[in-house]
Design goal:
Number of strands: 59
Shape: globular
Structural class: mainly beta
CATH class of the largest domain: Mainly Beta
Distance between the termini: 51 Å
CATH superfamily of the largest domain: TonB-dependent receptor, beta-barrel domain
Mean pLDDT: 81
Low-confidence stretches: 1-21, 113-125, 135-141, 237-248
InterPro entries: Beta-barrel_TonB, Beta-barrel_TonB_sf, CarboxyPept-like_regulatory, Plug_dom, Plug_dom_sf, TonB-dep_rcpt-like
Number of domains: 3
Number of helices: 8
CATH architecture of the largest domain: Beta Barrel
Membrane topology: Multi-pass membrane protein
Family: Belongs to the TonB-dependent receptor family.
Largest sheet: 22 strands, antiparallel, barrel
Helix content: under 10%
Strand content: over 45%
Protein name: TonB-dependent receptor
Keywords: Cell outer membrane, Membrane, Receptor, Signal, TonB box, Transmembrane, Transmembrane beta strand, Transport
Amino acid sequence: MKNFVTLLILFSLQYLTAQEKAPKVSLSLEQTTLEQVLGEIEQQTGLHFFYVEDWVKGTQVTANYNEITVSEVLEKLLEQTLLNYYFLDNNRVVITKSNIIYDQLPQGFFPDTSKIAAERPKETKEYNPVFYTQNKSPKATSKTIFIGKETQTSGTGFFNLTGQATNQQTGEPISNLSIIVQGTTIGTVTDINGNYNLRLPAGEHLLETRSLGNEDVVTRLVIFSDGTYNLNLKEDYELLGEVLVDSNQAENVEDAIGGTEDIDISEIKNIPLVLGERDVMKVAVTLPGISTTGEGSAGFNVRGGKTDQNLILIDDAVLYNPAHFFGIFSAVNPFTTGDMTIYKGNIPARFGGRLSSVFDITSKDANTQKFAGEVSVGPVTSNVALEIPVIKEKSGLLLGGRSTYSDWILKNLDDESLKDSEASFYDVIAKYNHKFSDKTNFKATGYFSRDNYSITSDSLFNYQNLLFSMKLNHKFNDKNDGSLILTNSHYNFDIDYESEYNNNFTSGYKINETEVKLNMRYLHNAAHKFDYGISTKLYNVHPGKIEPVGSGSIIEPFEIPKEKGLESAIYLADNFTVNNKLLLSGGLRYSHYAALGEKNQKVYEEGLPKSEATVIDTIHYGKNEVMETYGGPEVRLSARYLLLPDLSLKLSYNNAYQYIHTLSNNTTVSPTDTYKLTDKNIKPQRANQYSLGLYKNFNNNMYEVSVEGYYKESDNILDYKVGAQLFLNENIETEVLQGEGRSFGAEFLLKKTEGRLNGWLGYTYSKSELKLDGAFNEQQVNNGEYFPANYDKPHDLSLVANYKLTHRFSFSANFVYQTGRPVTFPTGKYYQNGIEYVLYSDRNKFRIPDYYRLDLSFNVEGNHKIKKFAHSFWNISVYNVLGRNNPYSVFFVTEEGEVKAYKSSIFSIPVPTITYNFRF
């Protein structure tokens, strides 16, 4: 360093003299390489440039310069590059990359500079150079990287470092990779696409990566300005072993958005689940604020919301029914899933159309280096996933499939009425990923699932999901990147009915939606990171039809007219770093919905209940004619304040609109539930949510603790009238009510992320209530007072734990306790005109018994040798160890003049399972 300073002093006078005599040149450049331009300047002036050839390759210039100095030409030529220049003397010019050669020492370089500073001429320039020590790098550091381009003020301020982490062997992005800066509290974690962003002060830093399954690397960085550094890491199988990956570091404390859960698929393989099926959606239910109405029920209730208020996405395409086999299994293949992020508090502005939550599921990118796969064989299901390189290091194909052979379970049940039943499902997924360059890549995903079941001998039910998505990602420069996305989702449900009588029929409904969206990101500076975009979605809903089967059927064909709607939105969001303690995340989304024809819409008399008797007009709307429009602003605000480096306070507010509804008169979710679009007579659902939470980490992030409270108020929530007929009803608005909803609660989560014993404890206290009130009795439920929703379960506790005996052997446990859900009981009977009627209580006045369950498993990992054909994993588990006869539902039957109560259970005995997995 001393020799370098001496060199600067010797050359300073020569530099000033050279600047005064800088020659002038004239250049006409058309797609001319930088190397050619420097050669032309050498010919015109006699100057000689010194540089490394690789620095100037690939840069082309188109410009005209007339009689300007070489200094001015170089300033313009090098402005958009990482290069600087320095006049060594009258004839020699040195080109440097990233850094600057200084011709004077900065103020304050020597210990006592007061006198020097006082005598300095006023026109002397102020410099803020970046100093670094070349021998500071530890032995573990593999290399030194210079980021950005140094300017005369580079030594001040903070800069943004962005990049992507990828697997060196497969080319796949590495998510949940910890990236920390040694000696500081600065750190981050990569997202699902392996991307990261750090805000660092100028100067020298040691960047360290940490993850399970990849090598730990320390890199020496010298930061001059904003820039990019990509990490290409080798696999390290010797690091495998923990259930919960220590990759989030302090993200739960430092991130601005509360109420967010990230689930890594590698964390769930040891958790004991029913019939040995690894299930990412079932793991989600063990987290605070997320529940289901009962064992074997489809759909999720998030923070007191209905099941239709969740947006479930697979690679940006909507999955309408996320359940297989009566809700016992999810429709998401765990072997092909990369990550899942659940937003239950403040939902980012890029998402819309649902009130309660977003389940953002991203499938894995295929291995582009070598053929790989994973296989699972269990007593009920088998699963296989294959990764096939198409073009080495550029593209790959991911194929996954699951199927069941579950009929044997139904045939072995004690219930004689179910022995002749059948149930089966399968799903397949394919994803193609192609890397055009370091800045551009393309991904396409297709998914299909189908379920068939027959609980009675005369009806066969089936439903299927079909979705497709294409995504083009492009990075324009270090500050701008974006994604163009096209998706299509299709869901349909059918019933095939056969009997000895002449009433055979087929019936069903379907929904189809297509969406185009553009998501952009702009990294303005260290303090502001903008997300913005636009989207439009077209709904096509066929509410239902019935058709006769066979020439002798007496069923009359009938079909409810198709519904169509167009939902569009534009959004802008900003992550604003106010200071080191305060971080704000603000977003504004404006959504607009148009109900479209062709359709007839009935007009009802204002102020009276909707019925055939109150119809005053019928309006016909032509094809694609706008029948009604709705919309408004959706605000997404959240803030994080660091009370301590490992303790933060977070608060948030968001409001949302939802234009599609689920119609059901069942207590639990059923595949027969139908869908209804907003129109002139059905208004969109709306909600406002407020939340406040404390987040704390202990013992170097080994323990994570959070407590968060929320309050949500909703409007235009759809519910049914007493005795409503919803399926195949053309005038559905006469059978439903729209009212108010409110939910509130507190969520507690304690997580231990490493060590022999790891896992989490989650507890939620919550209330969810509805209010259906109106001027007339038929518009009221429970006299217009608030009553518990079908999914109201005040106490919900989950414990997930794993204890490692060795690197290969471990025990796991899963304990669940929930308050019984509400139910309406008959309380008596009466006679009217000689006919007996049953008198029921207020809606949802009573509850079924509380639910609790304990599951245990023993897990055996294969050895962790790197050079072996496959890595195996055995899971031996027992579901419902205590044999608890948890009721799924309670129903009432009149027998010999008496009303008798019965309860049904899904699994009332312990269910042992052994599953074998291997990955190659």
